[in-house]
Every structure is written in structure tokens, then in C-alpha cells.
Design brief:
The chain is mainly beta. 11% of the residues lie in helices and 55% in strands. It has one domain: Porin.
């Protein structure tokens, strides 16, 4: 599965190189996310996207409790997980759909984007063990703790649908479904101060692949520039199958990561050159008649 992450990263790199090559105007172009360039337009339907922001791992609201009886006595283990804040940053490309919609309700996909980035996810878990007598009374207690920060290199791809909330289309809700592949580069701390309940511990694979949903509030700053604060949440784990659970499993708990992003989209400016726009045919004809009558 690690090869999938390498393929996604390679795709982004080659796409970025292609975006920087000299632009050639073609007579016909059937690309779903592009069209022949008109130099009177200020921007192209392709651009760069950058996003960054804090992360946080949410955990279960109810603590897990285990009652154990062996030859040494009776014990009650209580596990209490909590999230920790982190951060992420990403850079990539965006392609807007400029083809006329074929449905009355508009386009199914308004734009696609993809990128590579780094995310830092963390969590903490405390385990309290109560030593019990034969009737269940607490004779004494002890507490252990484990905490971690894992850093992931990731590649992401998403398809977006815009829901405009005013006639000028300067404000909109940005809905997105996407896929991300993450590989752990740093962290992986499995240390735990005693006591702990080792039989319930599990540590996720270094490679993670998930389907996620992203929603944001979009602001059109000016033509070709958009600012979108929002949040990205995984909803299905598809690499290390755990009944589709998208959580990060560490120690004896599950951590659900949320990425709160501040996203900026900047479309590339229109290029001048061989694709020079000749203007409206009627205006061109009137100009020729004027020159002939001088």
C-alpha cells in the first residue's frame, strides 16, 4: 500500500511541472476542466491551492472499564483517552470545471484539487487501576499514562461541489469528497508509564488511507482568488480494515482526526501570445469600413 502513496505524490509532481510549461492555444479542446483561452479573461481555470491550520483528535466520550480477577487478586482498569492539538500544511493544484453544465441544477463537479502535505496528530491516554478486595471495595489505586505525536506525509485528492448563497456568487458553501494516503515519518512513541492494560493495546499501521468529507465557507476575494476556511473529517478507513473505522488506533483507544483549514486558491493569470483575441466580428467589420472611408 505504500506504493499507492508514492504514485499519488508522483502524479502531483508531474502535474505541477505540466502546469508550468508554455501554454499553447488549441483550436479544439474537450478537456472537462478547461477550454480555449481568451486573453480578455484575466485568469485560467487552473491554479495553485495552499492550506494550513490546526488539527485535533477527538475520542470516545465514555471511558472503557475492565474487571480482572486472577490468582494475585482483583483489579479494575479504567482507560481515559483525550485528544491533543497539532497542525498541518499542504500545497497543490486546482482545476476548475468551465464546461457548460448538462443538467438544469448545474454542474455535478465544480472543481477538483490535489496536493501533498504534512500533518501532526497527537493523543493521550491514562489508565487507572483500582485494587479491590473480595467484596469489591477499593484498597488502593495507581495511574499510568501514555502520550504521542505522530507526523505524517500525505497526498490528497478531492472533488468539489459549490453551493452559492448569494446571486453575485461571492459567497458559497464548498462540499468535497476526497481520498488521502498518509505515511508516518515521525513519532510512533509506544511508551507507557505503569500501570497499563497491555492486552487491549493496538498500534495502527504506519500507512493510512481514508475517504474524507470536507466542508468550508468560501469567499471570492477577487476574480481568480478564493479564501475557504473549513474542516476535513475522515469517514471511512480503507487500508487497514477495521470495519471501515477511520480512527487512528494508539494504545488502547481510538482517535478521530479533524483538520481545520484556512485554504487559499489562486488561479494562474491568462497568457498572451499566439492565441491573441481578435475581438467581436461586428466591431472588426466597422473598423475596416472606417479605415476604407478615410
Amino acid at each position: 500500500m505504500k506504493n499507492i502513496l508514492l504514485i499519488l505524490i508522483s502524479f502531483l509532481i508531474f502535474s505541477g511541472l505540466e502546469a508550468q510549461t508554455p501554454y499553447k492555444v488549441k483550436k479544439k479542446k474537450k478537456d472537462y476542466f478547461g477550454k480555449k483561452e481568451n486573453p480578455n479573461d484575466k485568469v485560467r481555470p487552473i491554479g495553485i491551492q495552499v492550506q494550513l491550520g490546526p488539527t485535533y483528535t477527538f475520542t470516545r466520550s465514555k471511558n472503557e472499564t475492565y474487571n480482572i480477577t486472577d490468582t494475585a487478586g482483583r483489579y479494575r482498569f479504567t482507560q481515559d483517552p483525550s485528544g491533543r492539538p497539532g497542525f498541518f500544511a499542504e500545497i497543490g493544484l486546482v482545476h476548475f470545471n468551465v464546461k457548460d453544465p448538462v443538467f438544469k441544477f448545474g454542474r455535478i463537479i465544480d472543481y477538483i484539487d490535489y496536493g501533498i502535505g504534512f500533518k501532526l496528530l497527537g493523543g493521550r491516554e491514562t489508565t487507572t487501576v483500582d485494587y479491590l478486595d473480595v467484596t469489591g471495595n477499593v484498597l488502593g489505586s495507581a495511574t499510568g499514562e501514555g502520550k504521542f505525536y505522530n507526523g505524517y506525509l500525505y497526498a490528497r485528492f478531492g472533488v468539489h461541489k459549490l453551493q452559492y448563497i448569494n446571486k453575485t456568487k461571492n459567497y458559497f458553501i464548498d462540499h468535497s469528497l476526497g481520498i488521502n494516503g498518509d505515511y508516518m515519518l515521525t513519532g510512533g512513541d509506544k511508551n507507557y508509564t505503569a500501570p497499563s492494560f497491555a492486552s487491549t493495546q493496538y498500534f495502527s499501521d504506519p500507512f493510512v488511507m481514508q475517504l474524507h468529507y470536507d466542508v468550508g465557507f468560501g469567499i471570492r476575494v477577487k476574480k481568480g482568488m478564493y479564501f475557504i476556511p473549513g474542516v476535513q473529517l475522515p469517514f471511512l478507513g480503507i487500508q487497514e480494515w477495521n470495519k471501515g473505522n477511520p480512527s487512528l488506533r494508539w494504545y488502547s483507544s481510538k482517535y478521530y482526526p479533524a483538520l481545520f483549514h484556512l485554504k487559499l486558491i489562486k488561479l494562474f493569470p491568462a497568457k498572451q501570445g499566439k492565441g491573441c483575441y481578435e475581438g467581436d466580428p461586428a466591431d472588426k467589420k466597422r473598423n475596416q469600413e472606417y479605415m476604407q472611408n478615410r
